[in-house]
């Protein structure tokens, strides 16, 4: 088989070696520069698919901290609002409490609640590629989950916790609670007698 045969592997190997031999040093960037260029051009657009639109903001603890609250204080407030909510130690997560309610003779999971002091708003922990790998749950996230599972009403949340006075983070809070704010009657049907009902 001849080397100039287009179907021959040797043809493309020869062409590749010709390009290598004829290449001039000025045609190549130093390795570190070329690597960084490749990361920015090829890798970063792929990784961006796994980041939120406000990723830089969401991973910033100093911005997301808000008003800290201890888990015991939050649980006490929640059980005053709905005595059917009870707490159990999470089996797979030593550092979390689990919030549950008994519905129709069955235990329904409502949300995890980290032990100790909670930030007001959830934030993410990132790895060396700047990808989110873990959520650090804030107490307002827990309120949203309980609202959507019918364990609390919007009137209860508004009266006891209010809206955030932090303009940095209030946009996410208002977006997350929009359906509840303007659809309270639907939530109330799931929450008659202040008993959590399955959605």
Which structural class best describes the helix and strand composition? alpha+beta
What is the typical, i.e. mean, pLDDT? Answer: 82
The total strand number stands at 7
Total individual domains? 2
Strands of the widest sheet, in order across it, are 2-3-4
Counting DSSP H or I runs of 4 or more residues, the number of helices is: 9
Sketch the topology as an H/E string, one letter per element. HHHHEHEEEEEEHHHH
Uncertain stretches of 5 or more adjacent residues: 192-199
Percent of residues in β-strands: 15-25%
State the helical fraction: 40-55%
The main sheet comes to:
3 strands, antiparallel
Radius of gyration: 27 Å
Distance between the termini: 71 Å
What's the overall geometry?
elongated
Q: Any overview of this molecule?
A:
With 199 residues, the chain is an alpha+beta fold. The chain folds into 2 domains: 9-49, no CATH class; 51-194, no CATH class. The chain has helices at residues 9-22, 31-47, 55-58, 61-64, 71-81, 139-148, 154-160, 170-181, 184-190; strands at 69-70, 85-89, 96-103, 106-114, 117-118, 123-126, 132-136. A 3-stranded antiparallel sheet has the order 2-3-4, with helices on one face. It has a two-stranded antiparallel sheet with strand order 1-5. A hairpin with a 2-residue loop joins strand 3 and strand 4. The chain starts with 8 loop residues before the first helix and ends in a 9-residue tail after the last helix.
């Amino acid at each position: 088989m001849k080397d100039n045969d287009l179907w021959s592997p040797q043809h493309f190997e020869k062409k590749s070696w010709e390009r290598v031999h004829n290449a001039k040093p000025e045609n190549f960037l130093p390795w570190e520069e070329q690597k960084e260029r490749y990361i920015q051009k090829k890798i970063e657009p792929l990784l961006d698919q796994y980041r939120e639109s406000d990723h830089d903001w969401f991973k910033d603890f100093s911005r997301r901290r808000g008003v800290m609250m201890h888990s015991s204080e939050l649980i006490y407030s929640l059980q005053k609002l709905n005595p059917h909510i009870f707490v159990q130690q999470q089996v797979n997560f030593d550092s979390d409490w689990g919030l549950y309610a008994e519905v129709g003779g069955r235990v329904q999971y409502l949300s995890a609640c980290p032990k100790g002091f909670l930030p007001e708003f959830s934030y993410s922990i990132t790895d060396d590629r700047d990808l989110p790998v873990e959520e650090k749950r804030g107490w307002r996230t827990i309120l949203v989950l309980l609202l959507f599972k019918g364990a609390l009403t919007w009137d209860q949340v508004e009266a006891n916790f209010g809206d955030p006075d932090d303009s940095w983070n209030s946009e996410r809070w208002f977006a997350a609670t929009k359906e509840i704010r303007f659809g309270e009657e639907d939530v109330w049907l799931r929450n008659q007698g202040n008993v959590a009902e399955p959605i």
